[in-house]
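Check out a protein:
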Amino acid sequence: MVETEASLPSLLRRRSRVARSYKYRFFPTTEQENLLRRTMGCVRLVYNKALAAKTEGWYERQERIDYKQTSSLLTSWKKTEDLDFLNEVSCVPLQQCLRHLQKAFANFWGKRAKYPRFKAKRNGGSAEFTKSAFKFRNNTLWLAKSKEPLNIVWSRFLPEGVSPSTVTVKLEPSGRWFVSLLVDDPSVQPLPPTDKKVGIDVGISSLLCTSDGKKIANPKHFNRLYQKLKAAQKELSRKTKGSSNRYKARLKVAKIHAKIKDARTDFLHKLTTSLVRENSLIAIEDLAVRNMVRNRKLSRSISDAAWGEMFRQLEYKCDWYGRTLVKIDRFFPSSKRCNHCGFVMDKLALNIRSWDCPSCGTKGIDRDINAGKNILAAGLAVTVCGADVRPDRHSSKGQLQKTSNGRRKQKPKSRVLGIPRF
């Protein structure tokens, strides 16, 4: 369906509000911390018991237990003498964790995720409150069963005239408390159009290389603190399990991991935001990152680069700001294909960073810049003529290209994500 000029105002109204989460750190009082820890413990208990009931029902009776049945189980658990403490915390987070478990199973049956796992206390915890379990007024937040408001560090204020629909409190393994406020944000609007388009090739030595010749160095946040983390983990392994010293050593390791995570997240957000603001079209490769990390030699470097998180941020930010994101098929020979004549090398080892084209005679072709240019060209071909568009889990015939050994090679397919409708 083609959007007409008359339908543009209604389209803008539909996009005027975007569900956006604002995350803040807060410092609870002793009473609030005790209440929140008990709430998260109850959430973890209910989640694990419901998961065990679902697993038992399927393996013993081939029965799929849904949310209504687990909700009935929760009511019966509250009536027992051993679990009567479940009545001391808000019932909303307990119901929400059952909804999350139901969604996890839906993703599993839909082959979008692995089988749900049991929650562990060492991973911290979280509790989700809906509107009936909290009060928000004048940038002050009260949670159910709590007499005092949360002491939130307002690093940035919420947009004017909005109130959160969901509040999620999270305790990190490092001991830090965070609260996330989900709001309908009216400030997210499409960015002004620009003529710039870019193709991105990701790597390890350079985090990414663009089609216009720019290379962004990989900060390697994990390597920066690797020796400090190694020493802290060695100290942790020597502590007696269950002792206070082991708890302190575990916190020390968790804090180092938190530093690495914060630095990586901050860098990726700044990088992806600048890419989305400067370019109207971004072409990337649809890489199978989960499969690539199985390589023992490169798994740590790939995980530290966080390609999957970078692609995730590009995807939702392009959708927010009206940009076009094109994902090129992962088997597209972007590095082995000459961007001048289209010649495809039969083999190109990873240690070869530049090569000469035997067909057109171009010398000193930079592997990464060449890949970025080819990715951009493939993305433009898809958006202009719609050729070789392939949805997920579908196959179609592609065009053939010559290779260095004289045989015929199939040209991989591409697919488009986030094409703006106006």
